[in-house]
């Protein structure tokens, strides 16, 4: 990445955090059926949300691969994978970056869960998680916990990357996702 690209990525992340610039689509409400989708993953597989019924799903949207906040958030989800496994929960990261970008990001950072490429931006829009910036459309930093029946159980709209994985684990515990 050259210096201009790094600066543009950082400026974009700052702009994404401004709620004024968020997309107009509303996020699905707690208790509603999670919008189904099929997206390609960095590992070459296709992930269909409805095929994961019977499992807790942590669906987190993030703005951009290889940026500081997104890398920190991804590292924490990767570090906590054994805890998610105990709770029978699958973590899926979604951004509008390409499959190739996700492959590089996972290889570079040693990520152990699937990143999904929403290049047409339809899934981020369906979840009210698409920021329309002047120069680009990026996923907003939102997370949805989807219960084993495919319903939205919890929504996180104000995500702080450094502590978010722990917040999600606590929410899974409160929701009864013990995996026992």
CATH class: Alpha Beta
Major pleated sheet: 5 strands, mixed
CATH H-level name... which superfamily? Glutaredoxin
Coarse morphology: globular
Helix proportion range: 25-40%
H/I helix tally: 6
In total, how many domains does the architecture comprise?
Answer: 1
- Order of strands, main sheet, comes to 5-4-3-8-9
CATH fold label: Glutaredoxin
Brief characterization of the structure:
The protein is of the alpha/beta class and 180 residues long.
Keywords:
9 strands, five-stranded mixed beta sheet, globular, 180 residues, Glutaredoxin, alpha/beta, 33% helix, two-stranded antiparallel sheet
How would you describe this protein?
The chain has 180 residues and is α/β, with parallel strands linked by helices. The chain has a single domain (3-174), classed as Glutaredoxin (3-Layer(aba) Sandwich), CATH 3.40.30. The protein has six helices and nine strands. It has helices at residues 3-16, 68-79, 81-86, 99-109, 122-126, 164-174; strands at 38-40, 46-48, 56-61, 89-95, 114-117, 130-132, 137-139, 142-146, 152-156. The strands form three sheets. The protein has a five-stranded mixed β-sheet. Strands 1-2 form a two-stranded antiparallel ribbon. The protein has a two-stranded antiparallel sheet with strand order 6-7. Residues 13-24 have low confidence and may be disordered.
């Amino acid at each position: 990445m050259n210096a201009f690209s790094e600066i543009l990525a950082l400026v974009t992340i700052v702009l994404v955090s401004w709620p004024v610039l968020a997309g107009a689509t509303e996020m699905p409400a707690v208790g509603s059926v999670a919008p189904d989708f099929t997206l390609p993953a960095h590992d070459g597989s296709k992930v269909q949300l409805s095929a994961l019924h019977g499992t807790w799903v942590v669906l987190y949207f993030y703005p951009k691969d290889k940026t500081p906040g997104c890398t920190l958030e991804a590292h924490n989800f990767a570090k906590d994978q054994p805890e998610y496994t105990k709770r029978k929960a699958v973590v899926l990261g979604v951004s509008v970056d390409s499959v190739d970008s996700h492959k590089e990001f996972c290889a570079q950072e040693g990520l152990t869960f699937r990143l999904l490429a929403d290049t047409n931006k339809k899934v981020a829009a369906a979840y009210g998680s698409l920021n329309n910036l002047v120069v680009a459309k990026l996923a907003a930093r939102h997370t949805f916990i989807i219960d084993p029946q495919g319903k939205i159980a919890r929504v996180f709209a104000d995500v702080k990357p450094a502590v978010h994985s722990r917040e999600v684990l606590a929410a899974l515990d409160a929701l009864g996702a013990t995996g026992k």
